[in-house]
Amino acid sequence: MQRKDSLTKDHIVAVAAGMIAESGSDSFRILDVAKKSNVGVPTVYYHFESRNRLVSEAQLLNYEAISQPIYGVLEQVEAALAAKDEPLFTELLEQHSRLIWNAGRPENDFGVISILTDIWADATTRNVFRGRLLEEFTRWIAALELAQSFGWADGTNDAKTTIVMLWASCLGQAITVDLDPIDVSADGFRDFYMKSIKG
Predict the structure, then answer these.
(1) Sign of dihedral through CA atoms 163, 142, 73, 11?
(2) What is the value of pTM for the model shown?
(3) Tens of pLDDT, residues 83-112
(4) Band of residue 192 on the pLDDT scale cut at 50, 70, 90
(5) What are the contacts of 190-197 at 24+ separation with CB within 8 A?
């Protein structure tokens, strides 16, 4: 029974994530997700104690969808460091800067600010998100520290501060986009990103 329950819950979250990505969370209704999931409303509430919990878990799935290419670059960065391939490491940093910058753009269907707001609305999902983010940051910090030890990155910058500030600047651009004169181009961010890491 546990396996079927887990599959049903995963299905409901996936359907909800698609609905929210398409129409946003403000108009999201439990009745609609139940119908699209081919389950009854009581089944939805069996798996999710509230609408907020379901929206939050669905938005966590949407966050993971836009972050998957970014995680892939992290794995490649770690492999480039293990192989001591500095040109590949540098190329991957530039790729990473484009991916994280574009993830926050308003033309991105998911809308990262909306996603994070919905995730933050539920304490349980927020803690899951924070745990995953901590794991990702820990890996990036370790990668940057290793690159610093190889002389590939500026050793005078604190790795933790650098990683956190780059992540925060990407979220900030989602708010300031198209506001002259503070809208920053992807190339401008890339240059800042590379200077922050490489020196």
Answers:
(1) negative
(2) 0.85
(3) 999 999 999 999 998 888 777 665 554 578
(4) confident
(5) 190/94, 190/97, 190/98, 190/101, 193/93, 193/96, 193/97, 193/166, 194/90, 194/93, 194/94, 194/97, 196/154, 196/157, 196/162, 196/165, 196/166, 197/93, 197/144, 197/147, 197/153, 197/154, 197/157, 197/162
Residue type at 149? S
Name, of 34-38, 92-96, 103-107, 178-182, the range with top average pLDDT. Answer: 34-38
Superfamily designation of domain 2-198: Tetracycline Repressor, domain 2 (1.10.357.10)
| pLDDT score recorded for residue 29 | 97
DSSP 94-132: HHHHHHHHHHTSTTSTT-HHHHHHHHHTSHHHHHHHHHH
Tokens 């993971």 sit on residue: 64
